[in-house]
Specification:
2 domains; TIM Barrel; Enolase-like, domain 1; globular; alpha/beta; 14 strands
């Protein structure tokens, strides 16, 4: 991280935070993206995403409670102090995720003011593009094995070389473990052996329910098994580790290094998955990644294009980072939301040129609604 403490206040107070607006982007009955736009007195605006924070009313209440601590603060000289003060007020996921959105937006704003891309401001090297894998769980359609396999096949046809499904999220006709296993088998058959397949359990099954299908899942050559057990349940992770050779992934809700350090020290997690939203922002997610030195890091990101861009920039600055998660197939107008700045070719997401995130929100789209503002 570049030191900015000596930057001093921006001349004439132009770096003071002037206002914040939150936009809701209606995506599907399941998904809405929440984007924060933070502007300074010079008219520079940074963007951050706080989707999946839970109840929108709690998000608005948190922003209202925090606004006095943000109003008229110098985004350049005081960013760290402001964010650290807000972090002390986090008591749960909604506040952590709001902090994540504010951190992204302020970082974007400051990098724009300095005229540098966010990856450079974070101390990374120019990646040009980053590898991404397709999370197919949010694509519309049925959840029969053949229907899930069809989405996976479409992702591969679009150039992705790895796909992730959450096969235990929706019940079917039979025990959930067997239903989910059938979905995974269908996806593997559809994409072939040359495409990586990841399974996200979302902690839907107990260890006893999961146990009979661990060997069949291993036979399918999964790239990882995610959140079969929460990263905070170290003893259960030890048991799972003893029962399967599959690589174990998790950590999407971690906020502080202490949330993941016990699992890392016990050697029961192979892939850490901090989320720039839920971790409280870019630098907190980077601190989580550094806890697992020598452990691979794949940023959790079933998000809109703003958090995806932030995560891509962070991937470029994150030691041990591997492919970034990308929510595949939700809507066809996703890239239009950021003026076409989100471009994926052959499973690689291009880093947009320009300062900061390198993209702006197109507020003219009918899916975009301003739902909260300090103005």
């Amino acid at each position: 991280m570049r030191a900015r403490d000596a930057a001093g206040p921006t001349p004439s107070g132009l770096g003071m935070i002037r206002d914040i607006t939150m936009y809701r982007i209606a995506v599907s009955p399941r998904t809405s993206w929440l984007v924060l736009a933070v502007s300074d007195r010079a008219g520079v605006t940074g963007l951050g995403e706080c989707s999946d924070a839970g109840d929108e009313g709690l998000v608005e209440a948190t922003l209202s409670a925090w606004w006095p601590a943000l109003r008229s603060r110098d985004a350049l000289a005081e960013q760290d102090a402001v964010l650290e003060g807000l972090a002390d007020r986090v008591t749960g996921l909604p506040e952590a995720t709001v902090l994540g959105g504010l951190d992204q937006a302020l970082s974007d704003l400051v990098a724009r003011r300095e005229g540098v891309p966010l990856w450079k401001w974070l101390g990374g090297s120019d990646p040009g593009a980053v590898d991404v894998y397709a999370n197919i769980n949010r694509a519309p359609g049925g959840r029969e094995p053949g229907e899930v396999a069809s989405v996976a096949r479409a992702a591969v046809a679009a150039g992705f070389r790895a796909v992730k499904l959450a096969p235990f999220d929706v019940p079917g006709s039979g025990p959930l473990a067997e239903v989910g296993l059938a979905r995974v088998r269908a996806v593997r058959a559809a994409v072939g052996d040359d495409v990586d397949v990841m399974v996200d359990c979302h902690e839907r099954l107990s260890l006893d329910d999961l146990d009979p299908i661990l060997a069949p899942l291993a036979d399918l050559g999964l790239f990882w098994l995610e959140d079969a057990v929460g990263i905070d349940r170290v003893e259960e992770l030890r048991q799972l580790r003893s029962r399967t050779p599959l690589r174990l992934a998790g950590g999407e809700f971690a906020f502080a290094p202490g949330d993941i350090a016990p699992a890392v020290e016990a050697g029961v997690v192979d892939v850490l998955m901090p989320d720039v939203k839920h971790a409280g922002g870019l630098r907190r997610a980077l601190a989580l990644a550094r806890v697992g030195a020598g452990t691979e890091v794949s940023l959790h990101n079933p998000c809109g294009p703003v958090a995806t861009a932030a995560s891509a920039h962070l991937t470029a600055a994150c030691p041990g980072a591997i492919a970034l998660e990308y929510a595949f197939g939700e809507v066809g107008w996703r890239a239009d939301l950021v003026g076409g700045a989100e471009r994926i070719t052959d499973g690689r997401l291009a880093i947009p040129p320009g300062p900061g995130l390198g993209l702006d929100l197109d507020k003219r789209l009918p899916s975009v609604t301003a739902v909260w503002s300090t103005r």
